[in-house]
Amino acid sequence: MQLHITGLEGMLFSFIPSVPTHVIQIKPSYAIASDARMHAKAVVHPMYVSKKMYVFDDVWPGLHKNDPGLITAEIACNIISDFVEARNAGCEGLVVHCTRGKNRSPAVGIALNRMFELGYDHGEMRQKFPEFTHYVYRTILEEGARMGYGPGFELEFEKKFAFDAAAKNTMMQGFARRSS
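Below the sequence we write its predicted structure tokens.
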């Protein structure tokens, strides 16, 4: 399956699908009306045969307690179910986009690639998108495992031993870059 991870600008100006494609749009909870219009313009192409929009922010639960923009188990299940439905309907491509294409969309794309073996090297994808939101990635993998998809045993090891330190380090680097 073709997989393209991008930001809103890439969807508007550079990516043109060549096969029937499922689009996952991730919009922040604080988006204004003009952002919503741009998100709608980004998915106007006849090859985009399935389009779904989800609303959640690039936040970490330990730092953003009770944030209404936090990805939920329900959103993760919907992302997975909608992807499976689109793939079963014949979609040969997947585009995942958020505002910048650096945090939320890579987290979703990397998780779906890992869960459904879409044909891309997991380690290379993690290196290509070092700022992906680990909490989003983990939430999708955990819900996928509950639904019977993906690498459940590997996720448990990753969560216990490697996840927290690496995720916190990446997150803090991202905050430092944004505030400077």
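Residues 152-179 form the longest helix (28 residues).
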